[in-house]
């Protein structure tokens, strides 16, 4: 297993109310870690705390979020801004509220580009073409980026948010319930896209979701957040060994037994060998040895899982704007 790209030890409070209690986990290069929990477990607070933004919401954070040996929580605001968006990036939950409806999609990229780059328009245009192809948006349609958020579909807007997060090639990507506002077919497409990005670029992914089905499908490890603390953290392949009541409650909320879902994944060779086995690579090695995406088994798996995602409504959703 590769070295951690992010090490987290933190506590968060709103006034005298403790929301996160000694939350501890590491995230390795090339790994996908799923963070699940019911409403009120602290997932939204965790996202804000990891980015050092909780004070903007009236909260306080103590502890450390180590990225490249630097504690993001201890840095002055101007130095923290140099890390956010460049080394660690966020894919928010609701694309239509995360994007500014008054400006074009291109303006979003231009503003994000100028925050961390001194290279000019030609470099931005080259990067935009790469990103549009990467997230499967129309790279050859010059009019697409001139549109405003309200002129594209929700699925396209979510892909735009993913492209914005990847703009500066961050080592860490936090996806905060990126499929909750999408229909089942688009959910499956976004999960597939995140898997491809993880494999091809080696970006470490912290996938926060109420949707346990997509976590089982996408992630190497699963962490369960309950009452402000992580009560379980184990490989997805060993989820049936979980014993904490909070984890068992989530498993009981699945539309079918978890063993059926795991067995279904194991029938796909890429899911069995690449998603279940936590052999994480660095971004450099991933770029040198990109993994091919088996289309037939993958398409079958996603189409089978999509109706299950649609039926799983027991676990409440938590938003982050």
List the defining traits of the structure above:
single chain, 321 residues, alpha/beta, 6-stranded mixed sheet, 4-stranded antiparallel sheet, 13 helices, 10 strands, globular, disordered C terminus
Overall 3D form: globular
Q: Name the average pLDDT.
A: 83
How many beta-strand segments?
Answer: 10
> What is the topology, as strand order, of the major beta sheet?
6-7-8-3-9-10
> What is the percent of helical residues?
40-55%
Radius of gyration: 19 Å
Strand content: 15-25%
Please describe what this structure looks like:
Residues 271-321 have low confidence and may be disordered. The chain is α/β, with parallel strands linked by helices and 321 residues long. The protein has helices spanning 43-50, 77-83, 95-98, 105-116, 121-134, 154-166, 184-201, 212-218, 245-252, 258-266, 269-275, 283-288, 295-311; strands spanning 4-14, 17-28, 32-36, 60-67, 70-71, 88-91, 172-176, 204-209, 221-226, 229-235. Helices cover 40% and strands 21% of the residues. It contains 13 helices and ten strands. The radius of gyration is 19 Å and the shape is globular. Strands 6-7-8-3-9-10 form a six-stranded mixed beta sheet, sandwiched between helices. A four-stranded antiparallel beta sheet has the order 2-1-4-5, covered by helices on one side. The longest helix has 18 residues, at 184-201.
Question: Topology, please?
Answer:
Layout (H helix, E strand, L loop, with lengths): L3 E11 L2 E12 L3 E5 L6 H8 L9 E8 L2 E2 L5 H7 L4 E4 L3 H4 L6 H12 L4 H14 L19 H13 L5 E5 L7 H18 L2 E6 L2 H7 L2 E6 L2 E7 L9 H8 L5 H9 L2 H7 L7 H6 L6 H17 L10
Parallel strand pairs: 3-8, 3-9, 6-7, 7-8
Antiparallel strand pairs: 1-2, 1-4, 4-5, 9-10
Helix pairs in contact: 7-13
